Amino acid sequence: xxxxxxxxxxxxxxxxxxxxxxxxxxxxxxxxxxxxxxxxxxxxxxxxxxxxxxxxxxxxxxxxxxxxxxxxxxxxxxxxxxxxxxxxxxxxxxxxxxxxxxxxxxxxxxxxxxxxxxxxxxxxxxxxxxxxxxxxxxxxxxxxxxxxxxxxxxxxxxxxxxxxxxxxxxxxxxxxxxxx
Length: 180
Known about the structure:
Elements: H1 2-5, H2 7-21, H3 26-47, H4 50-58, H5 69-85, H6 90-103, H7 106-118, H8 122-138, H9 141-179
Helix pairs in contact: 3-6, 3-8, 3-9, 4-8, 5-7, 7-9, 8-9
């Protein structure tokens, strides 16, 4: 009962300590998200009604080139959070919320979506969401797992783009400071 009554202390602290002690990386978090979202997709395929899947998929069906980046980040987060809320596993939901809030905050999502916009690839985020939805509608667990993996791999690729942008920005800033 201690675990269910106080998940903050019983789950977060040990996980954070293990993560820090093992030199955890963002790639580790993306791997965890892949495992969690894939498991949730399997759960949805087995238990959700066609109407529930249709409501989830309606969240993914919008033009990513229209809303401002900040709104795109909110819509992206809304889709992934709705996906996770459909799970019947309370622990998966809890862990996802913790890693989502603390690792993939709104600012991070905005920066990733801005990187997609700069590369004129806004449609890839929507395509990833729609591939997940199609697999759910088809009740195809293998396709769902592949779609989740591809979608999160895209997030990792844009993360690399962000690192490059930050390094370039840092180099420019250091060069400007050196001139002063």
